[in-house]
């Protein structure tokens, strides 16, 4: 990588535990993401993927463990401060505000940040630029996902966390979403992608972690996981 200062991992998660009352959703999960890489956490419904993402992005407080971003401990840093620091989440289910315009939704992405990148988002997603004054609820599911990703990119993050971006979308639209995710990585932003659609996610990723019942049961270079029959048969039944 030319010009960039290469240090340790951008994100490091150590022995993370998340509980909801007596439910142990995440048990001692550790993983990391190197600068500029695309790391994916795959697993079935209920495996604990969203809980991990929400703990990293400051939306929920972990029971135990340590999370560091660019070498700083962020285990208890609230979400809005993390956005300012360059760590942004694209939430599950997109969370678009349908009655607000596309432009207003994008403005919300810049709310906690001095780095306003709406112009760049419009360049990347012309369909959003053309319809900027329309209610976001008028967009298709795929376009709303692009808006959710665009809203995160407004803050020009150095780490972006994507929670199930392919959920509920037609296969052709899923292709487009994955193209965008690859482009984000190619532009130098570190990506942590959480997906039930394990095959697609591993095909796009550098490194993969397979999650089952709140624990990491396999990890390694994504291509190796995809080529491992035991992993494929036991855990990667979902997705095309
Ligand atoms: P999904 O794809 O359905 O979002 P996931 O892998 O992201 O699944 P989580 O949403 O993190 O999994 O859920 C992990 C476990 O924690 C599940 O058993 C779930 O039922 C439980 N859980 C999640 N949120 C809560 C909550 N608010 N209260 C109680 N239990 C919860």
Summarize the structure.
With 240 residues, this protein is an alpha/beta fold.
Task: Give a written overview of the molecule.
By secondary structure, this protein is an alpha/beta fold. It has one domain: Rossmann fold (3-Layer(aba) Sandwich). 35% of the residues lie in helices and 26% in strands. It contains 10 helices and 10 strands. The protein has helices at 49-56, 79-85, 102-109, 118-124, 126-130, 141-153, 171-186, 198-204, 222-227, 229-235, and strands at residues 11-20, 23-33, 38-42, 64-69, 72-73, 87-90, 159-163, 190-195, 207-212, 215-221. The strands form 2 sheets. The protein has a 6-stranded mixed sheet with strand order 6-7-8-3-9-10, with helices on both faces. The structure holds adenosine-5'-triphosphate (ATP). Adenosine-5'-triphosphate binds at residues 20, 23, 25, 43, 45-51, 92, 196.
Features:
240 residues, alpha/beta, Rossmann fold, six-stranded mixed sheet, four-stranded antiparallel sheet, 10 helices, 35% helix, globular, binds adenosine-5'-triphosphate
Topology:
Blueprint: E1 11-20, E2 23-33, E3 38-42, H1 49-56, E4 64-69, E5 72-73, H2 79-85, E6 87-90, H3 102-109, H4 118-124, H5 126-130, H6 141-153, E7 159-163, H7 171-186, E8 190-195, H8 198-204, E9 207-212, E10 215-221, H9 222-227, H10 229-235
Parallel strand pairs: 3-8, 3-9, 6-7, 7-8
Antiparallel strand pairs: 1-2, 1-4, 4-5, 9-10
The chain binds adenosine-5'-triphosphate (ATP).
């Amino acid at each position: 990588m030319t010009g960039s200062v290469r240090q340790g991992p951008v994100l490091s998660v150590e022995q993370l535990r998340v509980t909801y009352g007596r439910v142990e959703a995440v048990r001692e999960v550790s993983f990391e993401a190197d600068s500029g890489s695309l790391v994916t956490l795959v697993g079935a419904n209920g495996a604990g993927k969203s809980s991990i993402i929400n703990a990293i992005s400051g939306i929920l407080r972990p029971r135990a463990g340590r999370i560091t971003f660019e070498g700083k401990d962020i285990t208890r840093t609230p979400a809005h401060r993390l956005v300012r620091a360059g760590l942004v989440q694209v939430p599950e289910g997109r969370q678009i505000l349908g009655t607000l315009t596309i432009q207003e939704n994008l403005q919300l992405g810049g709310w906690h940040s001095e780095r306003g990148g709406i112009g760049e988002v419009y360049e990347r997603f012309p369909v959003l630029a053309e319809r900027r004054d329309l209610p976001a609820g008028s967009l298709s599911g795929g376009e709303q996902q692009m808006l959710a990703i665009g809203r995160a990119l407004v803050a020009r993050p150095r780490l972006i966390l994507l929670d199930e971006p392919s959920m509920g979308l037609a296969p052709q639209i899923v292709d487009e979403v994955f193209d965008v995710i690859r482009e984000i990585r190619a532009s130098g932003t570190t990506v942590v992608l959480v997906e039930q659609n394990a095959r697609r996610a591993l095909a796009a990723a550098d490194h993969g972690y397979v999650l089952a019942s709140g624990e990491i049961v396999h990890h390694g270079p994504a291509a190796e996981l995809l080529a491992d029959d035991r992993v494929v048969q036991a855990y990667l039944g979902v997705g095309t």
